[in-house]
Design goal:
The chain is α+β, with helices and mostly antiparallel strands and 73 residues long. It is 27% helix and 41% strand.
Length: 73
C-alpha cells in the first residue's frame, strides 16, 4: 500500500492565495494547491541527484522548494 505524506509550505498560490503543499509518495513529489487542484510533479530520484550531497551530508531544501515554486507559477 502506498503511503502519502502531505506537508504545507509557507508559499502561497499565486492564483487563489491558498497554502501550497508538498505531497510525497514512494516515487514522486507533487507541489501545488488543493484549492485550485493544480500541481507540478517531479520524480524523487531526479530531485535527490540535484539536491542531496551525501559527502557533505547536506540536503538543499530551499533550492528544492524554490524550483518547485518556479515550476508551479
Amino acid at each position: 500500500m502506498n503511503e502519502v505524506t502531505v506537508t504545507y509550505t509557507t508559499y502561497r498560490c499565486p492564483f487563489c492565495e491558498g497554502a501550497l503543499e508538498i505531497v510525497e509518495d514512494e516515487s514522486y513529489l507533487w507541489f501545488g494547491c488543493k484549492r485550485c487542484l493544480r500541481y507540478v510533479r517531479r520524480g524523487k530520484r531526479e530531485l535527490v541527484r540535484r539536491y542531496v550531497d551525501y559527502s557533505a551530508r547536506f540536503f538543499n531544501w530551499r533550492g528544492l522548494v524554490e524550483e518547485l515554486y518556479a515550476l508551479y507559477r
